[in-house]
Design a protein that fits this description.
The protein is α+β, with helices and mostly antiparallel strands and 248 residues long. The protein has eight helices and eleven strands. The strands form four sheets. A four-stranded antiparallel β-sheet has the order 4-1-10-11. Strands 6-7-8 form a three-stranded antiparallel β-sheet, covered by helices on one side. The chain is globular.
Length: 248
């Protein structure tokens, strides 16, 4: 999966569905298959207000995913191999997460899949990844920090940016799986009307995150699935079995 572990600009920890109908449709919808590391042909979907390639331009390079630990550059003392080993070790002690399901909904001007009944134990899972792997993260440079601050952050988000390199983590974390770029309200409604009946039958019930994915960003800004690590801990979640998007 992907061109090996090394040579990537940034790494990230994502939740992504295993191979199956949801993963296949979402890759085609976005136009990028992160698991295969190649573009995917868009489906022909009548009724969209604009070409699908335009609607999905912003999220395409990331592939279909929910962020657990946001993208980061490796610290000078870190290696990709050591990161992979740490992710495997972390996942081995973290429990799977089971939620009732996912729903298509607007979020800050774009469309995404959100957990039906709130974040549940997802926040704790993400916080464990953010904190447990922080030693592998290079500090954000001044330009990156200034760009994020210029976007308008609350004092709490600015403090998280300073501590963890990203403003939407820990108490500001909100799990979502992005499906479009920013859309005007009328466009958003039109896209949702086309997308909902096709996506709805593919959404897993329950929604189970049974593994986490180590991702790498190539020189073109596209993310690749490098490895998938099962969540092996007990004491919560569903006690084992299943993955987001269906069983394996």
């Amino acid at each position: 999966m992907g061109p090996g572990m090394t040579g990537f600009k940034r790494y990230a920890i994502y939740s992504a569905p295993p191979p199956g109908p949801l993963a296949g449709f979402a890759a085609a919808w976005l136009g990028w298959d992160a698991a295969a590391g190649r573009p995917a042909a868009h489906p022909d979907l009548p009724g969209l207000p604009r070409p699908l390639a335009e609607i999905t331009a912003a999220p395409r390079r990331y592939g279909f995913h929910g962020t657990i630990k946001p993208p980061f550059r490796l610290a000078p003392s870190a290696t990709a191999a050591a990161l992979a080993a740490a992710v495997a070790k972390l996942c081995a002690r973290l429990a799977p997460v089971r939620l009732p399901g996912l729903r298509l909904a607007p979020l800050e001007g774009f469309l995404a899949l959100l957990p039906e009944d709130g974040q549940g134990p997802l926040g704790a899972l993400a916080a464990a990844a953010v904190e447990g792997l922080d030693g592998f993260r290079a500090a954000a440079d001044a330009d990156e920090t200034a760009r994020r601050l210029a976007a308008g952050l609350t004092p709490a988000q600015a403090a998280l940016l300073a501590r963890w390199g990203y403003p939407h983590v820990m108490e500001e974390f909100r799990f979502h799986m992005t499906l479009t770029g920013p859309l005007a309200p009328a466009e958003r409604d039109a896209v949702a009307a086309v997308l909902a009946p096709r996506l709805g039958p593919l959404l897993p019930r329950p929604f189970v995150i049974a593994d986490l994915c180590l991702m790498g960003e190539d020189d073109d800004g596209r993310f690749h699935l490098l490895a998938r690590y099962p969540l092996g801990g007990g004491g919560g979640g569903d006690g084992g079995g299943g993955s987001a998007g269906g069983g394996r």
